[in-house]
TrEMBL record:
It comes from Monocercomonoides exilis. GO terms for molecular function: carbamate kinase activity. Residues 3-300 form the Aspartate/glutamate/uridylate kinase domain. This is Carbamate kinase. Keywords: Kinase, Transferase. It comes from the Eukaryota. Belongs to the carbamate kinase family. The keyword Kinase applies. One of its GO terms (biological process) is L-arginine deiminase pathway.
């Protein structure tokens, strides 16, 4: 059996031009689920764990709560994360079941509410180091008001725009996945597991157990953390591009198709080839997986998942 962790990009749930209705999101989950079902049918030996993002959904939910704050108390980010895990997990669970039925695949699917442990001492929690923008864009006046009223850390993330201010929250490094052992037991039993949605619910260890914190965990780093914990043979990030690219956006741009050794990828990463806001976190997560497990990581397009698994498409980072 080959155990694979599939990390889905945001386009698997909501396209950039869409408003995010239930119908739109269910359609996108259906398209994604059919691709996963075809991938599994092409290789019946696969044991599958799936992770996903939740950025647009958590942003919309936070906005809904802010608009209703006069009558209903808004919930903190850890609760918002849990709510979106349920929402997105349901959509994928429902559509995967339908896709499996269509392909004649007889496997149960389960969505897990999933916590990711971080350190309270992470530098992201110190001072104004928080780096992850969340929520709506604001003017400076609006941002300063939120800072004064709610104690938010706010930053001018788009300096050329008047309405370029946003709240920023800590994005701590994931240490371990609290429910990884359960996920491993389930996947070994033949269950397709949906876990670590949105990077997992951020929690810190206390004397009384685990406590949720106001933070957002990078979904790809959290995916690599879970892949390591469940002993995945392959960590595959499926996104809306077909590979990592050197010199992206320049005339000399070059796609990295095929195998790239870890040391070589580290060199490219250090040279700044991968944007911090897009491909950078994906490459970093893949490198971390390969470094810790000595196993393969793949970055590929969702549409080319089968060919990528066969080694014909995508960027394959190897030891």
């Amino acid at each position: 059996m080959v155990r694979i962790l599939i990390a889905l990009g945001g386009n698997a749930i909501k396209q950039a031009h869409e408003s995010g209705t239930k119908e739109e999101q269910m359609h996108n989950c259906d398209v994604t689920s059919r691709q996963i079902a075809k991938l599994m049918k092409s290789d019946p030996s696969l044991e599958v764990v799936i992770t996903h993002g939740n950025g647009p959904q958590s942003g919309n939910l936070a906005l809904q709560q802010d608009l209703a704050k006069a009558v209903i108390p808004p919930q903190p980010l850890d609760i918002v994360g849990a709510m979106t895990q349920g929402q997105i997990g349901y959509m994928f669970q429902n559509r995967l079941q339908a896709a499996f039925k269509a392909e004649g695949i007889h496997k149960p699917v389960v969505c897990m509410i999933n916590q990711t442990i971080v350190s309270r001492d992470d530098k992201e929690f110190i001072g104004e180091n928080a780096s992850k923008p969340v929520g709506n864009f604001m003017t400076e006046e609006e941002a300063m008001k939120m800072k004064a009223e709610k104690g938010w850390i706010v930053k001018h993330v788009k300096p050329t725009e008047v309405k370029g201010w946003r709240r920023v929250v800590p994005c701590p490094d994931p240490l371990r996945n609290q429910e990884a052992e359960t996920a491993a037991v389930l996947v070994k039993a033949g269950v397709v597991v949906i876990a670590s949605g949105g990077g997992g619910i951020p929690v810190v260890e206390t004397e009384d157990g685990l406590e949720g914190v106001e933070a957002v965990i990078d979904k790809d780093l959290a995916g690599a953390c879970l892949a390591r914990a469940v002993e995945a043979d392959i960590f595959m990030i499926l996104t809306d591009v077909d590979s990592a690219v050197l010199n992206y956006g320049k005339p000399e741009a070059k796609k990295l198709i095929g195998e790239v050794h870890l040391d070589e990828m580290k060199k490219y990463f250090d040279e700044g080839h991968f944007s911090a806001g897009s491909m950078g976190p994906k490459v970093r997560a893949c490198m971390r997986h390969v470094e810790f497990t000595k196993k393969r990581a793949i970055i590929a397009s969702l549409d080319e998942a089968i060919e990528a698994l066969e080694g014909k498409k995508g960027t394959h980072i190897v030891p």
